[in-house]
Amino acid sequence: MNIIPVILSGGSGKRLWPLSRGQFPKQYQSLVGSYSMLQETILRLDGIENLSDPIIICNSDHRFIVAEQLHQINIFQPTIILEPIGRNTAPAIAAASFYVMQDKQNIDSILLILSADHIIQDIKSFHKAINVAKDQVEIGKLATFGILPTHANIEYGYILADVTGENDAVMNAKSFKEKPNMKLANAYLNENNKLSSQNLPINWYWNSGMFMCKASNLMDELSLYANDIVIKIKDSVENALIDFDFIRLEEKAFASCMDVSIDYAVMELSNNVVIVPLDAQWSDVGSWSSLYAIGDKDSNKNVIKGDVITQETTNSYINASTHTIATIGIDNLVIVDTPDVIFISTKNKSHEVKSIVKELQIQGRDEANSNRKVHRPWGWFDSIEVGRNFQVKRLHVHPGAKLSLQKHYKRAEHWVIVSGLATVTLGDREFLLKEGQSTYVDIGVIHSLHNQTDEMLEVIEVQNGEYLGEDDILRFDDEYGRN
Questions:
Q1: Distance between CA atoms of 90 and 254, rounded to whole angstroms?
Q2: pLDDT at 125 over 90
Q3: Domain count, the chain
Q4: Considering the entire predicted model, what is its pTM?
Q5: Which of 40, 64, 135, 262 suits 378 as a labelling partner, its CA being 20 to 30 A distant?
């Protein structure tokens, strides 16, 4: 029986602002290791038997980021389902299930439902837990992976296990609990410690948000407990549009679906749920303090990223992605540097960063959602400098990629080739520009930029005009289907 990974990749990662923002959230970044969290989620499945290519469910705005990152790990024909609007995990998982079941041969396929933004360091233990869960799923169970708690945590939901059976590798789920206050979290931990001291299996687990089930069994349970989701998501999937590598769910039916998690919709109500304990150095990297907890620490218990100089600095997380950071005499801080924002907090208050994001949103500030570095299907650009009537951008164009054939009504552009070879369309002319050469694009002139080589193309673009917004663009031809 084949296993189809379903990767949920629609989160915004606000608790890791300013590094993670809506435009480029944490799951697409390399926070631990050399690959992005999405890529790590897929790569750690290598070695599981009967594994199919993954299905990725993501925000439409992130579709080209997902496609590019999958190509980088040699997945060239991905299944990427686009949510027209965020509706939580139950509708997203239902959409993946219906999509799988459109092929009658896949009705009893096993879905391995994972989040794109988790860290799992003990891959061997993770694979072992998947094999245990697979045995349960094959007999019709819905399996959830319960994380062995290491401390009283108020950022996770909890699951209470029935420990009266003889098998502590698989236990029935008695109930799901919301994120507790600290008093209750300590009570759960103390109860676990008491059982453990008596050599008995513990009964409280963190809810990992990872599940395993047959597509057909999940649909049966959803039909029983949340049939409205089944009706609307079935309609949305059956009327989806195929757009290049992407499957665009029909918007009206999907948007009318209730906003609810799979926990609320099914798992908390079903009598068919089992817990597979997982002790695999798991983290959902949901805050700066959790990223500090799993990071490699120096002799002063600091986690250091980038160009950092420290003196008398202890127990701190310091991430210098753009500038040099120098510290003297600090303790227990989080310092995160990005091109446009510097965030400083004590570790125990860093989870409250969402209140900063909310305030920025109230003020209508771009920093709430947008990074200075903006990803496009052809590569990315970084707005180096902005002033009255001018803007300077640094463009990186992927090998083989092409900017749309376009024109602007309110700005002119001057392109200088820093490295690589550019094929330029300017009006009715097409010509090559190499390193050190430049060209001028006047207001209203149709133009395009194409990298036809197998090397990265880097360009400095100087814009000038009365209006420099990204919406001043008319596209005539675009390889990526954008308007």
A1: 11
A2: yes
A3: 3
A4: 0.88
A5: 40
